[in-house]
Amino acid sequence: IKYVPEPFRIKVVEPLRMLTHEEREVKIAEAKYNLFNLKGEDCYIDLLTDSGTNAMSQEQWAGVMRGDEAYAGASSYFKLMEAGKDIFGFGFIQPVHQGRAAEKVVFPLLLSEGKFAISNMFFDTTRAHVILSGARPIDCVVAEAKDPSKRAPFKGNMDIAKMEEVIKEKGPENIGLVVMTITNNSAGGQPVSMKNLREVSVLAKKYGIPMCIDAARYAENAHFIKRDEPEYKDVSIKDIVREMFSYGDLFTMSAKKDTIVNMGGLLGVKDADSPLVLKIKANCISYEGFFTYGGLAGRDMEALAIGLYEGIDENYLRYRIGQMEYLAARLDDAGIAYQSPVGGHGVFVDAAAMFPHIPYNEYPGQVLCVELYKEAGIRTCDIGSYMLGNDPDTGEQLKADFEFSRLAIPRRVYTQAHLDIMADALIAIKERAHTIKRGYKITWEPPILRHFQASLAPI
Ligand code: F0G
Which PANTHER family match (predicted)? Predict the structure, then answer.
């Protein structure tokens, strides 16, 4: 198994501590079996998310010192605008403090009660913001995404036929928005092909529906297009990114992922003269802050402007996706199922395959997450029925298409030895999986985005 060596060396280190097995048993019980309730310092390897957990470069840290903290018209704002427009080719870009802030600012301008939003797959916060606006989300991901063991390229794609069916069934006037999530996080960080982006954009235009790119992991997506879509083999990542964005009318972006910073987001409108721009600025001033900082410090915008370029560096991306491929290859050797081929920001282990005797409403994904913490102090999160939650209209537990435990890998943070610990822990759990008979029940839950806060108990 080849490990692509790091295209950097380490200058600053952060010590880790490892609790004993007994201590971890106590901690997870005190956390009510919800890994979001654990303290970061009690996790040896923290794979809860790849969002905001990345290591910045020396250039970015130098940028932090150069950050201009002017309330209005800071030079860091203009630097960020220049980088954003250069890479994405959009006429208007609004900084916001993170991805969901972009969703909160723009979704209510396009969605309301009685409307629908269609996506290849909504991430949980995008789904929540569609529901908060009064509309209803509909996922139309391709069928092969739902079969984790089926290796197919671009399992993040939209099912075009299904999308058109939904548009006709609900009526084009009732579809407020099409959202293309790249990469498709909930389907396992699976990429979307350029062809699919193009086709979705043609269909959305045909029915006069605006298309928004949920672009958190756009650079990883571009890497997959270069690797797997033959006509892009010799095209630079920057040019691929430019073409991907050319198919959107809008984009929302959590910059906490592929732009390798700890905080930040962007909201783009292709046409700077669109009437949406003034409304976005107004919402931003109310919710986020004046439109030349949008909830960010000048130093954050400066680091973000630099990270936009570091994130599309081809050597970096080869190493980055190489880490996923290495971990996935170790799981292949051990016969552990995951969403395959491996996606861009983590390995999504198929917990339903590891615990076939535990039903969806006992949350097999969460079972594996708890076991990983007990086994090796590894913190992960459920991407399955536990995360999906209840039907907003009937209150009934929904059954997710998959039961994943997500090992999301922060950027430029962990080494090959850490990846080996992850693989070894999964192998050890697989060997005793049949001894874990039951899952969890929820003893308390809030009405929306429950997985962040809910309490659980073993059955
Ligand atoms: N869209 C996608 C595809 C995401 O993955 C996320 C966040 C967001 C939007 C929201 O962005 O967190 O900056 O407000 N995903 C993180 C994750 C939290 O762990 O996958 P945010």
Answer: BETA-ELIMINATING LYASE-LIKE PROTEIN-RELATED (PTHR32325), TRYPTOPHANASE (PTHR32325:SF4)
Q: What is the mean pLDDT of the chain?
A: 97
Residues in contact with 272: Cβ distance below 8 Å, sequence separation at least 6, in sequence order: 91, 92
For the question of residue 257 being annotated catalytic, the response is: yes
What is the C-alpha to C-alpha distance for residues 385 and 400, in angstroms, rounded to an integer?
5
Report the separation in Å between the CA atom of 48 and the middle of ligand 1, taken as the mean of its atom positions: 12
Instruction: Give the Cα separation of 286 and 283 in Å (integer).
Output: 5
Distance 33 CA to ligand 1 centre (A): 22
**214 is annotated as an active-site residue:** yes
| 393 has a pLDDT exceeding 90 | no
Give 449's pLDDT tier (boundaries 50, 70, 90): confident
Please identify, by atom number, the ligand 1 atom nearest to the C-alpha of residue 181: 3
Ligand 1 centroid distance, CA of 339 (Å):
19
Instruction: Measure Cα distances from 137 to 28, 111, 186, 385 in Å.
Output: 33, 10, 14, 16
Q: Is 313 exposed, middle or buried (0-12, 13-18, 19+ CB in 10 A)?
A: middle
Q: Check if 282 is active-site.
A: no
Q: Which CATH architecture has domain 21-50+313-458?
A: Alpha-Beta Complex (3.90)
**Exposure class string for 177-209: b at 16+ Cβ within 10 A, else e:** bbbbbbbbbbbbbbbbbbebbebbbebbeeeeb
* Whole-Å CA distances, 311 to 21, 56, 85, 260, 383: 37, 11, 15, 7, 25
State the average pLDDT over residues 73-77. Answer: 98
What one-character-per-residue DSSP string does 246-266 give?
A: HT-SEEEEETTSTT--SS-EE
Say if residues 406 and 379 touch (Cβ distance below 8 Å). no
**CA 50/CA 217 separation, integer angstroms:** 10
Residue ranges per structural domain of the chain:
21-50+313-458, 59-310
Q: Which CATH code for domain 59-310? A: 3.40.640.10
Which residues line the pocket of ligand 1, CB cutoff 6 A?
A: 49, 51, 98-100, 123, 125-126, 181, 185, 214, 216, 254, 256, 265, 408
What residue's CA is closest to ligand 1, atom 9? 99
Q: What is the pLDDT of residue 447?
A: 85
